[in-house]
Specification:
single chain, alpha/beta, Rossmann fold, six-stranded mixed beta sheet, four-stranded antiparallel beta sheet, binds adenosine-5'-triphosphate, ATP hydrolysis activity
Length: about 300
């Protein structure tokens, strides 16, 4: 279990992480999702004791990382796959970690096999590794001590499609055995497939969190019409929140925070013909994410104005 409680990190006047609270639970994959610069890495650095928080706390099973006697046995961490010693071979890096953690020597070869590095790749210096190979080595290091908690920052970076699939299965399997898995990404689809729970962060603040099923269920309705101004007015008059749907593409789509029946009735009363009317499902999450990632969309959104 990872507990992040009212975590704030400021750099001068800038709040990189602003009052972030969430829990990542055992047996579940928690996706930590946010656009570039949202504060994911900073939060994770605090969790693993690399950055002191300005206020608030992050603990794993009730303890701060710094208080863990043999942290590698309890928390597997992958923050920056490129930060490995370039002059050492992959096998050397794993061997040093295996000795530090007091693990049997056989774990090194087991992990090399598990992350599908060939023996000759394992004996190559890390400076000659591709990004995907570094990522595999980083995952091997994180899993070496069979920790119950995994904290992985953008672990799919640099992996090819087969590698992404492999990693997804690996994380799923790990969580299914009871581990707590927290992984960050700036790519919604990457995380949507594997995560059970989602924590969405933007500009340092949590903007949404819950189970994936809950967040998808609250997505509302996607509606398309040639008369967007007319429908917008009718929805506003009815007090129903709505926003242009960037996720659906085109300028004729709105996402409405009401179910399809309500939206259909409002359109009928206003005598507005619809081109499409359906539950938004994943589009709602994508919408929220696009709003976070594009400042101009945030400025033009009308969501909530009518609420
Ligand atoms: N040491 C620092 N000094 C000043 N600002 C910092 C420092 N570390 C991070 N920041 C700022 O904090 C904000 C959050 O950065 P962070 O790396 O946590 O984002 P992120 O969500 O991990 O983004 P990405 O998806 O691009 O990795 C950014 O604006 C970044 O420039």
């Amino acid at each position: 279990m990872i507990t992040v409680d009212s975590l704030t990190k400021t750099y001068g006047a800038f709040r990189a992480v602003d009052d972030v609270t969430f829990t990542a639970r055992p047996g579940r994959v928690t996706g930590f999702l946010g656009p570039n610069g949202a504060g994911k890495s900073t939060s994770m650095r605090v969790m693993v004791g690399l950055t002191p928080p300005t206020s608030g706390s992050a603990t794993v099973c009730g303890r701060r990382f710094a208080d863990l006697p043999n942290p590698g046995r309890e928390i597997g961490v992958l923050l920056d796959a490129s930060a490995q010693h370039a002059g050492r071979t992959g096998r050397e890096i794993l061997t040093i970690a295996q000795r530090t953690m007091g693990l049997p020597k056989s774990r090194v070869d087991e992990m090399i096999a598990q992350v599908s590095l060939t023996p000759s790749e394992a004996d190559r210096r890390v400076r000659n590794y591709s990004l995907g190979m570094r990522q595999r080595l980083g995952i091997a290091t994180a899993l070496l001590g069979e920790p119950e908690v995994l904290i992985l920052d953008e672990p799919a970076n640099g992996l090819d499609p087969a590698g992404i699939r492999w990693m997804r299965d690996l994380l799923r399997g790990y969580a299914d055995q009871g581990a707590t898995v927290l992984l960050s990404s700036h790519l919604l689809h990457e995380i949507e497939v594997v995560a059970d729970d989602l924590v969405v962060i933007g500009n340092g603040r949590i903007v949404a969190q819950g189970t994936k099923a809950e967040l998808l269920a609250s997505a509302g309705t996607l509606v398309r019409t040639r008369d967007v101004p007319g429908l917008t007015t009718a929805l506003a008059t009815a007090g129903v929140a709505h926003a242009p749907s960037a996720a659906a593409g085109g300028s004729d789509a709105l996402r409405v925070e009401a179910d399809t029946e309500v939206v259909g009735s409002i359109a009928l009363d206003a005598r507005i013909a619809l081109l499409e009317l359906r539950a938004a499902e994943g589009a709602g999450l994508e919408e929220m994410f696009l709003e976070l990632t594009a400042a101009e969309q945030r400025e033009t959104t009308t969501r909530g104005e009518a609420a």
